[in-house]
Amino acid sequence: MARSKDNRPNRPERPRMSVTQARDDLQRSGQQQGSPGMLIIALLGTLAFIAFYYHGLVLEQMTQLTGGLSMLDHRITGYSLEDVTALAAVMDDDALGQLNWVHKTAGIIFPITVALAVSVVGAWSLRSVPLRWVTLASGVIFAVVDIWENIAIERALHELTADAVATASLLTQLRWVLLAVLIVWLVILLIQRLRRRSSVD
């Protein structure tokens, strides 16, 4: 061991850490523990799976119980009393019960997942607090309209009245318009976030 002039062993110098180094270490530590982006990817993946299951599988399979007639949920442009009457004529109690079960399960999970995904992506991507609240409100409104539409569709199939059908048809059209707007908004938010991240890097 090296000794100083007064015959005392020299102590090794302690490494000094600057503020910049500490900040960089904290950033790297946060990245290693996980990023909100991973949560967003998982949430969007869940949403895509539920959407495919609900609209691509379950509701499409319901057409086998109606002789090929599509469910009212998928009639984007709306429907008339004659359309609902024709559908109700080929749906027995078992088919109506199956539709009710679908609406109470995937029909509730899907709009809630959409609202959650929109809210989380908005909070992650937007810096403006008012815009975050608007995004959250939009997701909640969609969920309310979607669930209300499920109830209105079943009422229309049971009552077969002009008022019930008109309400259900309007909600179906409104629901699809809101869903399209939210999908476009989600894409815009994600692109904006990616651009901001690339500019920082």
From TrEMBL:
Residues 1-33 are annotated as: Disordered. The chain crosses the membrane at residues 37-55, 108-126, 133-153, 173-191. Residues 1-27 have a biased composition (Basic and acidic residues). Keywords: Membrane, Transmembrane, Transmembrane helix. This is DUF2127 domain-containing protein.
